[in-house]
Amino acid sequence: MNSSVIVDQPPGVLLPTALDATRVSNPTKEAWILHALKKRRTEFLDSHTTTAFVGTWNVNGRAPASPTALASWLGFIPKDSGQTALTSLPELLVLGFQELDVRAEAFVYNNAVKDVEWTDAIEGCMGSTQHAYRKLASKQLIGMFIMVYARIDVVELVSDVQATSVGCGIMGMVGNKGAVAVRIVYMDTPLCFVCSHLAHDAAQVDRRNSQFHDLCKRLLFTASNAAADPLVPLNLGIHGAGSLGRPLTVFDHSYLLWLGDLNYRLAIDTGDMADIIARGEHQSLLGLDQLRIAMMNKQAFVGFEEAEIGFAPTYKYVLGTSIYDEGRRPAWCDRVLWWTRPGCEGGVRSLSYDSVDSVITSDHKPVRSRIELDVWKVNQDCRQAVYLEVLRELDRYENECIPTATLDATIVEFGDVAFGQLIRRSMKLANSGQVPLEYSFVATPSRPHYAPAWLRISPDSGMLLPGETVDLLFSVLVDERTSASLSTHAEDLSDILVLHLNRGRDYFVQVQGNYLTSVYGTSLDSLVHCKSPVRGMSRDDFEQCLDSGQFSVPVCVWTLTDFLSRYALDRGYSLFYWPGDRSLACHVRECLDRGLPLDPADILQWQGNSEDHVARTVVEEPIQLEMRQGSSRVSMTDQTLVPSTLHSMFSNMDMANAPSTAEALERLSLDPWAVHPSYSHTRVVQNGQDIATGSDSDLESDQQELTADQNNMLTTEALPEAIASANAPHDTGVDTVANCLVAFFASLPEPLVPVELYSACVEAGGVSRAAALEALEVLPPGNLNVLVYLLAFLREAVERGATTTMRVAHVFADALLRPPVGRVPSESDSRMLCSFIAFLL
Q: Is there a contact between 478 and 704 (Cβ–Cβ < 8 Å)?
């Protein structure tokens, strides 16, 4: 195939660049905008009229006709060599040919070569007028060939010239049938010219219809900066213009001119067609024209127009004559049609439309049409101004029906937030519009829920009538489900919420607070590596601790158990039967978070105001305080916090070589209290003996409250089998510290015994101690270390009569073990878990 390259393409004019405007994608709005722009088009369009000569001819594979025959087809060529006024010539010249090359090798090897021969013949027949035109583009596909010329005085007005071709013949691909096409932009008006050759034979009407639709889809041009519609500013997306980046179709133009041998025949043979045509009554046969029938039935060429046909059928003639071939039914195979895009209606007018009966070199007569086109030069600034005015007008109409709201604030500040502390803030939402308002907080692409897990909003959706208001209540609560990432500063206690109004705008509400890092809610994996108080640690500090590879019993666990050992077990107080004081619990938690010792002077002599405060057993002799610095204790940074006799096994040892769960738990009879961290501390002296460790601290008053489930881990009712222990002396301060120990384990994001072991532990609780130990064989070393330490303390408490095995099992079962998501513990599960803890003790 010899495919001509675009030659002598004019530089054209600078077309508009992308405009910074809002895209319009709603079809209804698009139609309204186009209608409004059309009414005001005179404000930004300078209208001009241009003429185009459009000719089509199926040459039946013949050599080029004589210059005389070609000149008679063109019609505007002067008969003598005299000069012709330039302005009398059409501005555009579009010529289409079919069956230009019918040689077998042209189909087989796709190497048609007759385009140059015919180009020379056409230009040669034009005589002196050939200098009045410059070829813009040409394209050949085997037998199909199109040429587009522009008059030399308008060449500068043409830009963005492109050519393409598509075959749809044999197997739907071969170029014996198909189309060639050229696209240009004249001034600021995009034009497309298509020359096609469709399936032959009267019975192939459905195939011709199908080929038309196939060509419309496959004839594509490269997207460019030229607008597809002079009414619409660039990059606005109306009607999917090529500026959006997708390829341009033949319909992405103001005007589409379609010419060629369309091969539509007469639907039936009346038997006397030759006589009807001879009498000049061929108009009566147009009702049988398959093309008109297809257009009327919307099967093909929908929306296309054609000038009135006043000439006889152009096919089929005996070669060298103007006599119809009696073996074929006459038909108007050769046609010129046009289509205009919405907003450009009436922009194409036919000046003439006929065939040339005197040309007899083919079995088709050549057809020609002279067409007048309305083209536009766009004033870009004026068009943009008009477009924005139209958008503002549309926006004004829409705003009258758009709901609007007012918020009395856009930032919700929670201040300092502690673990388990419920804080509420409110914001007022008012309907300030004239229509009912439907509101809701909506999710964002980065989060499937409208708010983070630590925040609740009530109500989160609703409706307000004009003038109505509602108080939106924002509640923040950090618990074991949401604390892990906040505790290590991987996330902040802040977010931006989206309040959406149905059919209205979105409002952005910022919520923020300062989470006070606490041992409560911090993962055990982080705590066993921490050597500093968590309140003062940064995100980098947590990451460095995790990278150290060293682990120990969390300092907060040692602090609580050491206090209980000294001031509960040694004094004969009962444990785990009574709730503590809420305010005192906050004080204890603050000490744990800041790494401060628990001062018995503050705790054992606590004067809380809670109604359930129980009178304590008074120490016989007054407590005296003596300040001492230093300690002979082993540093917490150098050693693992386990019972002293197990320390030799755990310190300086690879975790992979730690003792088995069964071996570790079998040694719980050993003394667990020989090792603990050292502090600069206060000695509490009674009768000359050290009885406590603590320090004076200047803590701010903490008005925060723990949630009910953490405050009441211990029931006020004693178990039936433990009445004696429950009636033993007890101290509210000691009870508070004991409650804090249970609450700490309950607050872990991942329980001490991992969730995946829950089912095995429940099952083991109904079997034996050996089964319980076996269920914990896969316990991580850090968790095992803490469990051994805790059980050692609890066994000591049971042996010294401060509590009972079943009471400990009842209290710690829910704190140490947690069911997987979706599993609701049954009464049987609870009994089995209590038995499991009892086995471990």
A: no
Nearest to 777 by CA among 761, 791, 793: 761
Residue 11 scores a pLDDT above 60: no
Helix, strand and coil content of the chain, in percent to the nearest 5, comes to 35, 20, 45
φ/ψ of residue 297, rounded to 5: -90, 5
Q: Which pLDDT does position 782 carry in this prediction?
A: 83
Nearest Cα residue to 556 out of 586, 589, 529, 516: 589
Helices 27-39 + 380-399 axis angle, to 10:
130
What pLDDT is attached to residue 517?
86
Give residue 89's pLDDT band: very low, low, confident or very high (50, 70, 90): very high
Go through the chain and tell me how many residues it has.
Answer: 841
Torsional sign, CA 36, 38, 42, 46: positive
Concatenated DSSP letters for 631-683? --SPPGGGS--S-HHHHHHHTTS-GGGPPPHHHHHHTTTS---S-----SEEE
Q: Which residue has the higher pLDDT, 352 or 776?
A: 352
Other Cβ atoms less than 10 A from the Cβ of 208: the count is 23
Measured CA to CA, the distance from residue 712 to residue 24 in angstroms comes to 60
Residue type, 512: Q
Q: Which residues pair with 375 in a beta bridge?
A: 48
What are the pLDDT digits (tens) for 497-523?
999 998 888 899 999 999 888 888 888
Among 319, 259, 324, smallest CA distance to 285 is for 324
Q: Where are the beta strands (DSSP E) in 361-468?
A: 367-378, 405-407, 411-417, 423-431, 437-442, 455-458, 461-464
Please compute the mean of the pLDDT values over residues 424-448 and round it to a whole number: 89
Side-chain-side CA neighbours of residue 331 (13 Å)? 23
Q: What is the CA radius of gyration of the chain?
A: 47
* Block residue for tokens 């303390």: 793
Q: For residue 334, which of 310, 350, 314 has the smallest C-alpha distance?
A: 314
Mean pLDDT rounded to a whole number for the chain:
79
0.70 exceeded by pTM = no
Cα 495 to Cα 444, 446, 448, 480: the distances in Å are 11, 12, 14, 19
526 φ, ψ (degrees, to nearest 5): -75, -40
Report residue 278: phi and psi, to 5°: -60, -35
Q: What angle do CA 541, 543, 546 make, to 5 degrees?
A: 110
CB-CB neighbours of 401 under 10 Å: 11
Q: Is the dihedral of CA 680, 686, 688, 690 positive or negative?
A: negative
Residue written as tokens 């054992």? 604
What pLDDT digit, counting tens, does each position of 614-629 carry?
434 333 332 232 322 3
| CB contact at 8 A, 743 and 713 | yes
Distance CA 40, CA 299 (A): 35
- Read out DSSP for 179-245? EEEEEEEETTEEEEEEEEE---SGGGHHHHHHHHHHHHHH--B---SS-S-TTS-TTS-GGG-GGGS
Question: Can you give the pLDDT at residue 72?
Answer: 93
The three-state secondary structure class of 7 is coil
- What is the percentage of the chain residues whose pLDDT exceeds 90? 36
CB 233 within 8 A of CB 188: no
How many whole angstroms separate alpha carbon 487 and alpha carbon 658? Answer: 29
Q: What is the pLDDT of residue 135?
A: 96
Q: What is the DSSP string of 679-727?
A: -SEEEEEETTEEEEEE----PPP------HHHHTSS-SSPPGGGHHHHT
Cα gap 200→191, rounded to integer Å: 28
Q: pLDDT tier at 708 (50, 70, 90 boundaries)?
A: very low
Q: Is the pLDDT of residue 722 over 90?
A: no
